[in-house]
Design brief:
With 204 residues, this protein is mostly helical. The protein is built from 9 helices and no strands.
Length: 204
């Protein structure tokens, strides 16, 4: 007698189907934008009926927020795991930079969706709270570095935007074929961005 094959629970199967839908939605949103994506297109790409998709997500807004939170949590987990809380500020900066770079290389579609798209029109309260927690974490790092005299005084928001704007520009240039993002280029970019925000005492 053949052994019976193990059967997967309904909740596990539902979770798998939900992930398939989210992956399809991510691809559509990256290629066509939120407003250019129709729900039936996502369903077709996911291989499910439109009615089935609505069983998991009651609206396109609910679906895009689920995509946003899934990948925002993923990039946060990668950066936080690599972050050395007691290391010197310069090493912390390098760890954050490298964590983001590893994520962007491993999940280019997700990074493009998170960082190169404007989400403000549709983010719900839960997604905004997640975004704000990440920004608060970054601002806390900058403020501590300022207190230690390692980073320029001034707006923490501005300093973070200078760094992340440069990082996003680097990734866009890489994906568009304008630069070859090897380790040497990534190291050069990291050092250049650190120089932008690092405090340099005025010469006597």
């Amino acid at each position: 007698m053949k052994a019976a094959r193990p059967t997967r629970s309904k909740s596990s199967q539902a979770s798998d189907k939900r992930d398939v839908i989210l992956d399809a939605a991510l691809s559509c949103f990256v290629q066509q934008g939120f407003h250019g994506t129709a729900v039936p297109e996502v369903a077709k790409k996911a291989g499910v009926a439109t009615g089935t998709l609505y069983h998991y997500f009651p609206s396109k807004e609910a679906m895009v927020n689920a995509v946003y939170r899934k990948w925002k949590e993923a990039i946060a987990r990668q950066v936080f795991t690599a972050f050395p809380p007691v290391a010197p500020v310069r090493e912390q900066f390098r760890a954050v930079w490298r964590g983001m770079l590893d994520f962007a290389r491993t999940h280019p579609e997700a990074f493009a969706f998170l960082e190169l798209h404007n989400h403000r029109a549709y983010l719900d309260a839960e997604s905004l709270a997640m975004e704000n927690r990440l920004k608060d974490f970054g601002a806390g790092i900058v403020k501590r570095a300022q207190a230690e005299g390692e980073v320029k005084a001034g707006s923490t928001t501005l300093l973070m935007e200078l760094v992340f704007g440069a990082f996003n520009g680097m990734m866009r240039a890489h994906w568009e074929g304008r630069i070859a993002l090897d380790d040497a280029i990534a190291t050069l970019a990291e050092a250049a961005c650190w120089d932008v925000i690092a405090h340099r005492p005025e010469p006597p």
